[in-house]
Amino acid sequence: MLNMTWEFKLKPTVEQVAEIERTLSVCRKVWNYALAERKDWLNSRKSPVNACSLHREYILPADQPFPNYVKQAKALTQAKQQIPELKSVNAQMLQQTLRQLEVAWEAWLLKRAGLPRFKNQARMRSFVFPQMLRNPISDQGIKLPQLGWVKVRWSRDIPDICLIKQARVVRKASGYFVLLSLQADVDIPEVPFQGHPTGIDVGLEYFLSTSDGLQVKRPRFFNPLHRKLQLLQRRLKTKQKGSANRSKLLQKIARVHQRIADTRKDWHFKLAHQLCDRADALFVEDLDFRIMAKGMLGKHTLDAGLGQFTNQILPWVCFKRDVYYAKVDPRGTSQECPDCGAEVKKDLSVRISHCLECGSIKPRDIAAAQVICTRGQRGIENACGVEVTGSSVLNSSQLALKQEIFGAIRGISSHTVRLAG
């Protein structure tokens, strides 16, 4: 089963824009009310009996169950009969809002993310239609529940074998977009290891260094527009909250941030295709970039977008281009000699790897990339029990199937293609 999400820009009318904004407002109220219920229940279990607050205290019955998704969805059905505003919005859309809150709450309990926050008008930016109407696509646009036919700027043709499972309407600084979740009922085998392998070491001095000797300097996406952002945000201090001038200025700031993000994503895709042109198998360190983003170099780490490149864009491009992709253990890759395997201890200030055992002298990042490439091949050999130098290819029927599916994709820009979920 192949799942993809494609992004297209909408061209709604004035009435449709008003309906989208009203829907976002209702979803925001449902999110805030449901989150307040959960926080009230949690706060009612925090304070001991002999240490109640003098200002205010939550009083809930001791046997009242936690308001999870099932209970809140049931309460939403009852509230729709009493509140006309809720009845005017698609019921499944509001249920999806509660489901997103449930996912965010579980992520907080597992310490994977922070506590969900209340949303103002600017923070609620999307809603989803979990079920689409029959034949929702035409040359004029797309037919969405509650909105009707909306004009779309079709930047690519949707393959006939793909079904549209759901649609998400997103408000961005440059306009409104729709994310279509496509599903093809086909089984595409994983790309096998084959051909020339290459190890990749990522960092901040060089965005990446390969085992073949290629080193790419880290581009500063944020620096060219940093001065403009400073001037806009300095003017923001003098604007009154809730005024029209403040709203216009916030829109300008959001467009600058979106331009930075689009430039970064475009550069990542071009670099991923360049790497796939030079190798048949790519190995990358399995790093948690969230830890790097919390250090004193966090601003530079987020500006480089290392996680977006290694976890999202590069795997997708490798899968589309029939290039094997795998991650290896990152421990000690820069403390090992790539030629003899001896331990070469050095701190971050040492940028040259000099092995005293075999006399090898190489740049630190290139040596680490060669170690990554060796570990990746060794891992395949241990897992499969075969020589890694052998070439494994798809059979003719599998190759024909994959070429049929991606034939409509490869001829079109893949800047907005990403794996669903």
Describe the structure using short key phrases.
Nucleotidyltransferase, domain 5; disordered C terminus; five-stranded mixed β-sheet; 2 domains; alpha+beta; seven-stranded antiparallel β-sheet; 421 residues
Helix content: 40-55%
CATH architecture annotation name of the largest domain: 2-Layer Sandwich
Counting H and I runs of at least 4 residues, what is the number of helices?
A: 11
Q: Quick check: average pLDDT?
A: 84
Taking the alpha carbons of the first and last residues, their distance comes to: 14 Å
- What is the total number of structural domains? 2
Structural shape: globular
Query: Remind me, CATH topology of the largest domain?
Result: Nucleotidyltransferase, domain 5
Radius of gyration: 26 Å
Label the structural class. alpha+beta
Q: Explain this structure to me?
A:
The chain is 42% helix and 18% strand. The protein starts with a strand and ends with a strand. The chain is of the alpha+beta class. Strands 1, 2, 3, 4, 5, 6 and 14 form a seven-stranded antiparallel β-sheet that branches. A five-stranded mixed β-sheet has the order 9-8-7-10-11. It has two domains: 2-184, no CATH class; 197-393, Nucleotidyltransferase, domain 5 (2-Layer Sandwich). The chain is globular.
